[in-house]
Amino acid sequence: MALTDHRSGVPDNWYVDPVLLGVPGVRQTPSEDDNALAWQSDALCAQTDPEAFFPEKGGSTRDAKKICGSCEVRAECLEYALQNDERFGIWGGLSERERRKLRKHA
Question: Does the record carry Ligase as a key word (predicted)?
Fold first, then answer.
């Protein structure tokens, strides 16, 4: 017979995986989705001001595109944006309009 914590009524040997509970700070094991997005940790945009990548309508995209130009994961970023139909921002060095044109020609 298991001992019980009389304050909570829960047996002392009762265990619930904190990952399953979604306890903050407890890392889940990587899933396929996590691995598919692993490139994001190497993205230069993650180390810069995100506002540059989401300019206001008519705003300059030059700074964001310059950063993308030297990013090692530019191709993965663009592929993600195309597969997920990202409508806003600079992804893989292309604006939403440029990605739309790319889709039309593909």
Answer: no
Split at pLDDT 50, 70, 90, the class of 11 is: low
Is residue 92 annotated as involved in ligand binding? no
More confidently predicted of 10 and 57 = 57
Q: Known binder of ligand: residue 45?
A: yes
Residue 78 lies in a domain: yes
Does 48 count as an annotated binding residue? no
Q: Is residue 48 part of a domain?
A: yes
pLDDT of residue 7: 56
Question: Could you tell me if residue 99 is inside a domain?
Answer: yes
User: Is 27 labeled as ligand-binding?
Assistant: no
63 within domain boundaries:
yes
Q: Tell me the C-alpha to C-alpha distance, in Å, between residue 18 and each of 2, 13, 24.
A: 21, 15, 9
pTM over cut 0.85: no
